[in-house]
Amino acid sequence: MNFIGNCVNSFDEFGDCILPQLPFSNVTEFAQLVEESDNVEIGDFVIQYNQETDIHSFFFKTTNK
């Protein structure tokens, strides 16, 4: 998987997402995605939660060709 960012470095001071490749535009949309489960897959996009650091990391799946 390719690391894209995490919940700490992917939003600006206003809560807007600064990485256009992510499937949400702000922290509210991100929070709604992880409300039911900390680990989420949407197609090739993956959110993984690390309980020790309390950080959600964002990845895109890679294909081996």
Strand order of the largest sheet: 1-4-3-2
Structural class: alpha+beta
Percentage of residues in DSSP E strands? 25-35%
Shape: globular
The number of helical runs is 1
Number of strands: 4
Return the domain count: 1
| Percent of residues in helices | 10-25%
What about the largest sheet?
A: 4 strands, antiparallel
Order of helices and strands: EHEEE
The chain-level mean pLDDT equals 94
End-to-end distance: 14 Å
Would you identify the regions where 5 or more consecutive residues have pLDDT less than 50? none
Description:
By secondary structure, the chain is of the alpha+beta class. The protein has one domain (2-60). The chain has one helix at 27-34; strands at 2-6, 40-42, 45-50, 55-60. Strands 1-4-3-2 form a 4-stranded antiparallel beta sheet, with no helix packed on it. The chain is globular, with a radius of gyration of 12 Å.
Strands, helices and their partners?
Elements: E1 2-6, H1 27-34, E2 40-42, E3 45-50, E4 55-60
Antiparallel strand pairs: 1-4, 2-3, 3-4
